[in-house]
């Protein structure tokens, strides 16, 4: 019987490896934090399985003839079981429909769960599956308005703006399309499920209004989230000119040293040159910091160390690209950039390098 168990374990291991490769080949790539497992963990599991098979081999020695005869039927039976399992877990096909807008974009949606309503100036994708509230995405294009203005008008109520938190980030999976975001909050600062997204698009702004009412049932909430996210994730531009409303920010800025630091740098350079070390230029350069702000909203700040950053259009926010925490505030006046360290409150001044 030990040989039978060994044969069965080996067959299952081969089947699992085959199914795993097929799954990786057919599935769409997902962000790391949303993935259900990891390749490293799978590798460890497979190594443990291989180790177990090796131990069985060492223990079995010679096969029992009576057990060997039974193994001839095992492959067919196991294969049938595997086919049944695959049929049970195979996802149901969805009827994906493409909605294409004359404003230069399209999305795909599940017609079994989303109803589309076109208005005079907007289009709404409403979730029609099981839920206890309203869940929908409304998209409209506002011509000749920058994102800040269009976002304010979309959110404004009679007495101003409702409580909200502001964010920024890439849109439609593209590193060349930036968006401004605002999520409404209640009196406790908790997000309510209403979010506005403003995207500069072809001399105007796309406003994406997302509403998802609270849902107590966790499974239903997850279903709604997946369906609405699927619509947004499928967003594709068919005609999109480069964003230009914030290009005045991007560029390279070099530090203007305060008098005392400038004197120290000059003294160090003179000392190095006098000593004949040939390090004068390098010494002076090492005393001067710089800021690089890329058009894709990434960048680099070099003061004592070089730090990769993400810069926001509004509020002068600069984040550490690795940790996601805010580390600086900036302000631009003509060709001057003023930087403040939010932790130490130290300030720095930089001037744009004209190439």
Written description of the protein model:
The chain is an alpha+beta fold and 355 residues long. It folds into 3 domains: 2-24 and 31-89, no CATH class; 96-237, 3-Layer(aba) Sandwich (Protein Transport Mog1p, Chain A); 251-352, Lipocalin (Beta Barrel), CATH 2.40.128. Helix content is 33%, strand content 33%. A hairpin with a 3-residue loop joins strand 3 (114-118) and strand 4. Helix 1 runs antiparallel to helix 2, helix 1 (2-26) runs parallel beside helix 4 (74-89) and helix 7 (259-274) packs antiparallel against helix 8 (280-286). It is elongated, with a radius of gyration of 30 Å.
Q: Major sheet, described briefly? A: 8 strands, antiparallel, barrel
Question: What is the name of the CATH class of the largest domain?
Answer: Alpha Beta
Radius of gyration over C-alpha positions, nearest whole angstrom = 30 Å
| Number of helical stretches of at least 4 residues | 8
H-E order: HHHHEEEEEHEEEEHEEHHEEEEEEE
* Total count of domains: 3
Low-confidence parts: 1-63, 65-73, 86-93
> Would you report the number of β strands?
18
Which fold name fills CATH's third level, the topology of the largest domain? Protein Transport Mog1p, Chain A
In the sheet with the most strands, the strands line up as 11-12-13-14-15-16-17-18
Average pLDDT, all residues:
77
CATH-defined superfamily of the largest domain:
Mog1/PsbP, alpha/beta/alpha sandwich
Assembly form of the protein: single chain
| First and last CA, distance | 79 Å
């Amino acid at each position: 019987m030990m040989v039978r168990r060994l044969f069965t374990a080996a067959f299952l291991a081969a089947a699992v490896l085959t199914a795993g490769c097929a799954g990786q080949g057919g599935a769409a790539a997902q962000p790391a934090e949303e993935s259900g497992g990891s390749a490293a963990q799978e590798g460890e599991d497979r190594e443990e399985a291989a180790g177990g098979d090796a131990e069985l081999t060492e223990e079995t020695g010679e096969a029992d003839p009576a057990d060997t005869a039974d193994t001839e039927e095992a492959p067919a039976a196991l294969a049938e079981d595997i086919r049944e399992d695959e049929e049970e877990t195979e996802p149901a096909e969805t009827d994906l429909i493409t909605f294409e807008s004359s404003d230069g974009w399209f999305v795909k949606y599940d017609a079994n769960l989303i109803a589309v309503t076109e208005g005079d100036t907007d289009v709404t994708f409403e979730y029609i599956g099981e839920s206890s509230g309203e869940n929908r995405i409304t998209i409209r294009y506002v011509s000749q308005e920058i994102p800040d203005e269009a976002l304010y008008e979309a959110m404004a109520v009679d007495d101003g703006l409702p409580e909200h938190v502001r964010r920024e980030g890439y849109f439609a999976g593209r590193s060349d399309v930036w968006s401004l975001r605002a999520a409404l909050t209640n009196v406790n600062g908790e997000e309510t499920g209403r979010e506005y997204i403003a995207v500069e698009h072809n001399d105007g702004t796309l406003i994406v209004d997302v509403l998802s009412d609270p849902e107590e049932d966790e499974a239903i909430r997850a279903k709604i989230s997946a369906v609405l996210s699927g619509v947004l994730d499928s967003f594709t531009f068919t005609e999109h000119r480069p964003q230009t409303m914030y290009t005045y920010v991007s560029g390279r800025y070099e530090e203007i040293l305060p008098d005392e630091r400038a004197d120290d740098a000059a003294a160090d350079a003179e000392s190095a040159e006098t000593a004949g070390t040939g390090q004068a230029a390098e010494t002076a350069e090492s005393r001067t910091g710089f800021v690089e702000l890329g058009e894709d909203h990434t960048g680099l700040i070099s003061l004592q160390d070089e730090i990769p950053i993400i810069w926001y259009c509004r509020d002068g926010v600069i984040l550490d690209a690795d940790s996601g925490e805010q580390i600086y505030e900036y302000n631009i006046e003509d060709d001057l950039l003023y930087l403040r360290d939010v932790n130490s409150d130290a300030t720095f001044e930089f001037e744009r390098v004209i190439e």
